[in-house]
Amino acid sequence: MRFTFEVGDRVRVVTLEPRGNGLAVTLDGAPVEVEAVAIGQGRWSLRLPASGRQHEVTVARVQDGQAFEVTVGDVRVPVRRVIGRPGARTGAAADGPARVRAPMPGKIVRVLVAPGDHVDARQGVVVVEAMKMENELRAPRSGVVREVTAQEGASVEAGTTLVIIE
Fold first, then answer.
1. The domain spanning residue 158 has which CATH number?
2. Which residue of 1, 66, 146, 147 has the lowest C-beta tally within 10 Å?
3. Alpha-carbon distance 131 to 121, whole Å?
4. Count of structural domains, the chain
5. Global model pTM greater than 0.85
6. Which domain holds residue 152?
């Protein structure tokens, strides 16, 4: 099964394939080793064998069946399932500036671009540490970096705009 989700300004593609008694998972085409155990309605215990980390995750629908709130530990992340062509965007978001936002509270570890830089779609622009994991945030489309508000070492809240691309 293949799912496309929007998390902030990021579009993520997740595939789930049955394998033995579990699932094979890929995130944006890269395999991810995950051990998942259901612990209740919409609640999962996830273990990442590569790092040894374990997280309790709760998934709850919050609107029209396509919007969800995913809670990992104490961090809540709004997620929306994209129906149709993956990566397709409509309205002003497709025509106006693209904003790269922090998907959850965290700390800026590295800023990979500067104003005036040309970036390709899916190119890393900022690395944010959240819940002891580094997350590389990527450009949602090709363009020129207009503004960088992210500063290395700074703490950010979920939804904070870090980079604007035109």
1. 2.40.50.100
2. 1
3. 26
4. 2
5. no
6. 96-165
